[in-house]
Amino acid sequence: MMHQAIRQTYVGAMRKGRDVARKTGVLEKLEARPTRRNLWLRSLFAIYDFDDLSRLDLPWWTFDAVREVDSFLRARPDARVFEWGSGASTLWLSKRAGQVTSVEHDGEWHQMVQGRLEGVENVTLRHVAMQDAGRVGSRKAGFAGQHFDRYVHAIRDLSGEFDLIVIDGRAREACLREAKARLAPGGIILVDDFKRRRYREAAEQSGLKIRRLDGLAVCLPLPDSTALLSRV
């Protein structure tokens, strides 16, 4: 609860700061010179704001990961992407990949994102709700007693392999096990928030090659970590 209260206070402060920055012309100046530093500073005001972050054309990963995935997809304009956890990244991916399937557990968030994706023809956004019973739980606070079996296994409803698989939702360790079996040759798996020990341990146990990209992260005032995993 304390963590949530601090987060809400910080986000509220950034909203007020954005209003001031807009009135004083700071936002305009940052957007006029889109260097990495300026984009990072500008993104701080877009935290938890889908529309603002989408307007900046940024997914919520580290900037090094954004650069690497952008380069990866530029070389594969017909890439097939699967994503656990929808958001601004879904729209960003749609502009760079051939086909994107994104799975979301939160019904209200799914509805909001679906509205923002109206007219985007290469994205399939699915809502797969939590279950009261099952084998796949989440270790995230607030999700005790909830299970994500159908959510994790949603990738099984599709045939074929994926060039890029993004793991940025719930039950990420279980998602990684599913993703490994569906990765196309030369493909990559992105795991966000890689500072969390349970994600690092799952990646280390996967047998995949890990490339950790630490540093400035979109929307965050402190450095973060995103990892790209591939077959050895």
TrEMBL record:
Keyword Methyltransferase belongs to the record: yes
Give this protein's Gene Ontology molecular function annotations.
methyltransferase activity
The record ties this protein, via InterPro entries, to: SAM-dependent_MTases_sf
Q: Which UniProt keywords apply?
A: Methyltransferase, Transferase
What biological process terms from GO does the record include? methylation
Q: Which Pfam families does the entry mention?
A: Methyltransf_24 (PF13578)
Highest taxon of the lineage = Bacteria
Question: What's the protein called, per UniProt?
Answer: Methyltransferase domain-containing protein
Species of origin: Pseudooceanicola nitratireducens
